[in-house]
Design a protein that fits this description.
The protein is an alpha/beta fold and 256 residues long. It contains ten helices and six strands. The protein is 39% helix and 11% strand.
Length: 256
């Protein structure tokens, strides 16, 4: 999509979002949109990731790594990807951030407005709370965590990413997992938990148990944004963090 067209789409979506927010106008300047490389010049290096079939809980998805794959290569491909409708409205893709040798891979739903602006995951108030939550059990994105999302581009008006959008982006996430090889996953929120486990249960039912994804323990918990809205969720979230810590310490028991 041409730069001018992307700007028009961005402004239209922003107006819709501001209207839904009781008429409040954010007043943020329209970002500078970089020119997109023409599709014909991109070649096989940035072919949109393959669609992924839904998984049963605990099942593994076979991931064929490109030769000499790297986190940097994935980030470059994600920035150029036009594999789903989310690409039209993004300012920046958000491939993820953190340690290259993580104990835990934290997986959220998708970027928000601040993440779309900066290209970094979980940088708003919810991200600040997430950092505190991780710090409470000796984890951090600087030292031993990698933080990413199911989709790399912001869904308009922060809606849930559609199933086809999740499937279009899952190849990037699976490649990151294959490179990082974390000891555990922390799925924050309903969407990442459902997407990875291949179920439709709510987060209230999925939390509090050790699940498995690609043979690796997975703990699901509430999204930090939910904790900011409802403080009564902080206690169960803390229990989930303790469960994650017990898994890392070798004391957790996987679901049968």
């Amino acid at each position: 999509m041409e730069t001018d067209a992307r700007r028009v789409v961005y402004e239209a979506l922003t107006l819709m979002e501001d209207t839904l927010a009781d008429g409040y106008r954010s007043g943020l300047p329209v970002p500078e949109f970089a020119e997109q490389a023409p599709i014909e010049t991109i070649g096989t290096a940035v072919t949109p990731p393959r669609a992924a079939a839904p998984l049963r809980a605990g099942s593994a998805r076979s991931t064929s790594l490109p030769k000499d794959d790297s986190l940097a290569a994935i980030a470059t491909e994600a920035a150029r990807c036009m594999g789903c409708r989310l690409a039209a409205g993004r300012t920046r893709s958000v491939p993820g951030q953190g340690s290259g040798r993580p104990l835990v891979m934290v997986i959220g739903e998708g970027p928000g407005a601040e993440e779309d602006r900066t290209g970094l995951p979980f940088v708003g108030p919810a991200g600040q709370l997430l950092d505190k939550m991780l710090g409470s059990i000796g984890l951090s994105r600087q030292d031993n965590c990698f933080i990413g999302n199911i989709v790399k581009c912001r869904p308009p008006m922060n809606r849930d990413p559609a199933p086809d959008e999740q499937a279009a982006c899952m190849g990037f996430l699976d490649r990151q997992i294959a490179l990082l090889r974390p000891r555990a996953f922390l799925a924050v929120g309903r969407i990442p938990a459902q997407s990875l486990l291949g179920v439709k249960d709510g987060i209230g039912k999925l939390r509090g148990t050790v699940h498995e994804y690609q043979g690796v323990p997975l703990i699901a918990t509430y999204h930090p944004a939910a904790l900011l809205r409802d403080e009564s969720l902080k206690r169960p979230a803390w229990e989930d963090l303790k469960l994650l810590k017990s898994v890392l310490d070798g004391q957790g028991h996987q679901q049968q």
